[in-house]
Amino acid sequence: MDSIVIIGGGHAAAQLCASLAEAGQAARVHLVCEEACEPYHRPPLSKTFLKADDQALQPHRPPKWYEEAGIHMHLGDPAVAIDRAARTVTLRSGQVLPWAELVLATGSRARRLPGLGDAPLDNVVTLRAAGEAQQLRARLAQAQQVTVLGGGFIGLEVACTALALGKKVLVIESAPRLLGRAVSPQLSAHVLRTHRDAGMEIVLDARSGGFQVEGARLASLEVNGERRGVDLLLLGIGGTPETALAQAAGLECADGIVVDARMRTSDPAVLAIGDCTRFPDRRAGRALRLESVQNANDQARTATATLTGAARDHDALPWFWSDQGGLRLQMAGLMPPEGTPGLTTVRRPGPNDSAFSLLHYVDGQLVCVESVNAPVDHMMSRKLLEAGRNPPPEVAADPAVPLKSLLA
User: Fold this and answer.
1) Cβ-count burial of 93 within 10 angstroms (0-12 exposed, 13-18 middle, 19+ buried)?
2) Pick from 385, 337, 316, 317: which is nearest to 357 by CA?
3) Rounded alpha-carbon distances, angstroms, from residue 186 to 55, 190, 195, 392
């Protein structure tokens, strides 16, 4: 019994398969996926995939790659139980897989609204996986008006896609600004202006509820006391880590599966990676749970090192991106909370009026850079942050000074 069983079919699981194959360990791997297809790229689901019926999923690797690598695939047959004492995983089909090492890459699930009840509604959708994206695409083609509950990345990406398709779009956000947990107030304000100028209706500080259901459809809801009709509603109110299997197996969980710096859970024979994990971050100085492709890929590489006897502590710079209409948002590092003592921000103009970067310092130390339509700035900012370089704000904000030169 020398198998590595990976539970999950997202970016973290796909990267772990690839990294283990590079390390010559592919023949040991069993990949257990709830979905009936090989892992695929998820960012397009909120953008290009929704625009036309002929848009297909973009697989990480073609099916033949897994076969040639020797990876054992268990598609459409999710894990239902983990027995740590016996070191086995039971699948829904009843098949039992023994393992020497187990990796949980179970991701997260879309948050639902209790006020809508448990019964599915024809015109209320979430977006996490291919099946939901296909449902949303079909509903979107028929809808004239789209309501998005939540002003986070996924909600705004879908809102921009719907707007580009000629739909009337309403975004409802309960917080006082868009993307409040992820970006700076300055970037939030720019995103808000841009989307409103494009014709999107956005309500902030929104109190929503009063859901009126007629048959199998949501007919309307109240927004700040005003009743608004609903043609199609996307719930973009965040996600919760998928920890049910881990909790049932007795692993430590706290808003995610708790792991150490080498991706080991409270059971050293069980690892966890990706959106489902809460992990110690050196730069933040605290435990984090991040939902991003970058984090999934980096944690998969750290887990590979652990599984192949070359264990090293996880130490990757977080970075993110979001395409929203004409906005290409790229963030390197973690934005400190509003009101952080010693936080200052400088703006670096880009090559045109639609491009710029915001460089954020805490007590004179560069900690985060947000770039808008400025991919070169983003790449150089990542290098600066990874190298621990700390250019003076007045120098870094000067567009005549290439950021690359500050690495010297």
Assistant:
1) exposed
2) 385
3) 35, 6, 15, 20
The stretch 395-399 carries a mean pLDDT of 96
Three-class DSSP category at 225: coil
Give the Å distances, CA to CA, from 44 to 130, 326, 400.
Answer: 10, 15, 35
Q: Please name which of 147, 286, 153, 163 lies closest in space to residue 218, comparing C-alpha atoms.
A: 147
pLDDT given at position 1 = 62
- The amino acid occupying position 35 is E
Write down the pLDDT at residue 163: 98
Check if the beta carbon of residue 157 is closer than 8 Å to that of residue 323. yes
Tell me: pLDDT of 204 over 80: yes
For residue 301, give the nearest of 22, 40, 19, 3 by alpha carbon: 19
Query: What sign does the CA torsion over 174, 180, 186, 187 have?
Result: negative
pTM > 0.90 = yes
Gap between the Cα atoms of 287 and 281, Å rounded: 6
pLDDT in tens, 152-195: 999 999 999 999 999 999 999 999 999 998 999 999 999 999 99
What is the spatial distance between Cα 22 and Cα 208, in angstroms, rounded to a whole number?
50
131 to 2, 57, 299: CA distances (angstroms): 34, 11, 26
Domains of the chain and any CATH numbers: 4-109+239-307 (3.50.50.60), 112-235 (3.50.50.60), 336-407 (3.30.390.30)
Residue 115 has pLDDT above 80, yes or no: no
